[in-house]
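In keeping with the milestone schedule agreed at the kick-off meeting, the structural modelling team has produced records for the first pair of proteins. Each record is given below as a sequence line and a structure-token line. The laboratory manager (R.T.) confirmed that both were archived under the project's standard naming scheme.
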Amino acid sequence: MIRLDQVTRTFAGPRPRAILDRVSLDVAPGSLVAILGESGVGKSTLLNLIAGLDRPDGGSVTVAGRDLATLDDDALTVFRREHIGFVFQAFHVLPYLTVAQNVALPLALLSYEARRVEERVAAMLTAVGLAERADSMPRELSGGELQRTAIARALVHRPAVVLADEPTGNLDPASAAGVIELLRERVHEAGASGVVVTHSRAAAASADRVLTLTASGLG
């Protein structure tokens, strides 16, 4: 579902620097891979390449059977909307919408009919343990509940790929482990391919596979 083949990304400047150098990665459906690494080694760059938010200088990125190099910017926007779910460190839950309304956003963008939206949202909130919080506002939630809301929103449209960028950075250790375990369970159930980048070994331990990204590569 996700394949990076000898991917290189170099940032220009007075002294050009290769952030990623011939990095290869395969993630099968129904699998969550955690990528560890210190700040600055290219973890977020790797996610941006998988999402088509950035383009490599060399190598290829294939997601859900599509070589992203064959898609222009408009096609990439549609592709992300249909096939990719995102989870962020800062939650990005809209404060003026209820939990259910936040989770429904991807379905609204895909023009789902109201009945299907209601069914999908209710099922996803039950899956992440937030059924009783459907009508709550974000300010009424704990950090862990906010991140579970973000996970529900990322998965409600059943994307082929789920990407999480430091999703436990604002959580205490117990909540962090629970969030990664929940993400893994939902990825398994949906048959999606998931990649989570983190600096926390404790959080990464709940993933199916743990890799480390360094200046020497991914392994």
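The second protein of the pair:
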Amino acid sequence: MVDQLKNKILEVLKALLPLIIVIVILQFTLVKAPANVFSQFLLSAVMVFAGIVLFLLGIEVGILPAGKIVGAGLMEKRSLWLIIAIAFLIGFATTIAEPDVLVLSKQANIITQGAVSENRLIYIVGIGVAFFAAMAAMRIILGFRIAYLLTASYLIVIILSFFTPAEFVPLAFDSGSVTTGALTAPIVIALGIGLSSVLAGRSAISDGFGLLGLASIGPIIAVMIMGIIVH
């Protein structure tokens, strides 16, 4: 645990330090923000650093192993519908708790002055991820090529883009991107690897991965449909 903590501290430090240095340089050269604002930034940077370290450590120590165990355990039940249902629930539960999704939904609510409800967007995105996470789990079990599912999914996205109001199209694509955040990504990937790891003669690389890529298409389609319905 101590070694893992040290590694996470170094990883987060390497990631955050360049950003902090750039803002400090800007503060003393171009921006020159008020002292209280700059001090709040420094304090917030320390809090973010500590939070990310603990967050990533928790994911590595507990979330990833648990996801793999759940995936492998579901395969032992030999019930396709149970696996699909659990994949749906995990996809939904992780998405509505994803920090990136919460930030996007709050900003969308503010910018549209409530026209795009914060809670509605969160749940729409969650359902989109959940549906495609279930589809991706079914793909792993049945063994058909991911290219077929990707092609069909993006064809739907292209077709829907012609009917979706213009203001919802960029929001839809951003909704897809924020679902690959720090919480959803490790859980969904671990679930896929767990499912594929117990299938004889199957590769965890070719079958276990791709689940998150498919899941991220779901919010795009879901938000586009929401835009069409709202307008």
